[in-house]
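To whoever is covering the structure queue this week,

Two jobs came back overnight. Logging them here so there's a record in the thread.

Job A:
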Amino acid sequence: MIRGVRGATTVPEDKPELIYNETESLVKEIVRANAIKPEDIISVLISTTADITSGFPAKAVRSIEGWEFVPTMCTHEMSVPNALPLCIRVLLHVNTELHQKDVRHIYLNNAVSLRPDLVQEANK
């Protein structure tokens, strides 16, 4: 079965090293929480808010050991007034045996405000 696994995080400012570190941490936590192996990943879509321009988060994903050939793409999120700033969102398309209700979506840093219902579920 193919499932989408979501996650998001934020950075304190638009600096490449922060973008890379937070993206890598987020993806590693998504993978850990859902027992995903690189060979099970179909593709990764990453979006950032328009205030992130100093680096490509996909670079961080491709730098993870074993992920060199995982198809990864970056894009900008819609510009919506009062949206959470400096936010990186990730969507992994994966082959998994998990039922949709059992997939653990991961929200870190200020991004926990995006889906508090899922954050609470993940901590149970």
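Job B:
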Amino acid sequence: MVSALYFVAGSSVFKVKNNNSVWSLNEMKAPHDFYCLAVDPVRPERLYAGSFNDGLWISDDGGMTWRPAGKGIIHKRVLSVAISPTEIINGFSVVWAGTEPSDLFRSEDGGQTWVHFPKLLDLPSKPTWRFPPRPHTHHVRWIQPDLHDEQKIYVGIELGGVMKSEDKGITWKDRQPGSQYDCHTLTMNPLAKGRIYEAAGGGFAESLDGGKTWATFNDGLGSDTYLVEIAVDPSNPDIMIASAARGAHSAYDPERASTIIVRRDSGEPWEVVQDGLPERDGSSIFSLISHVSEPRVFYAVNNLGIFQSIDAGKSWKPLPVEWPESLLKERVRWFVAV
């Protein structure tokens, strides 16, 4: 059972705690605006958070206090961070960090030291990578360590595509046809070896063979093909939800936002989910999460609240916590469960 959920917004980290089905929300001030967040499942009080211009930070007390990570990450913009689900070395889960400009780093000692993996930048598609709002750069938007094979890792470049390594980041294989190049989120499922799910600016793509081949499937999305996050039912790899908008302009800023959650089941077309969720106008893009300990359960959070589904994404209810008024106009980023 999930004991806590974390998300970031502005210069705060929020912890939503579940104590015997009684939920509470606690706001903790952060030293900087954080853009990404990860929780070590081996040490649940250990958090890693990346900032836009001030590097990677570490907390050992569940987000109450923070300190800078150790040396080795050569860029200050850390926009993605991930914990390996399979590798634990000397009591520490292996941590990956991605930056802008695109680069990848790995720590085996709890963030004290970092190893650089520059071969990612040798891929043939590298000259085409770009991030339209800042067109002269690009970044590692998402890192997905393989759930079934510790040698494999997948990296989503915004905007560049999905890159794959089969030797822990030493060498890389370039993006493949059928995948989406404006990658936002990648995920996997513990019951589906080799299956990778991608939410991207051009819609949904997936691979069933560990990234060798990909197919895009946008049936049912209509004009809402700008997907930002995706989550999969831990007990059924064929049930997934995604957060969607008509484009970047209406996805992130609450003042002009118009977004929805969509659901797909067993290969059928995507369907819009409305039961228990806010109207789309004024509702910024949802961050989504599922957790292996809770079959058929999803969580979603955005500027209007935090919501739970206990029927595999068909219907939703807000969690019974007092929602801070300050969040109504904030973009909520990154969502993790422990």
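Note for Job B: Residues 84-94+103-333 form a domain with the Methylamine Dehydrogenase; Chain H fold (CATH 2.130.10.10).

Please reply-all if you pick these up so we don't duplicate work.
Q.
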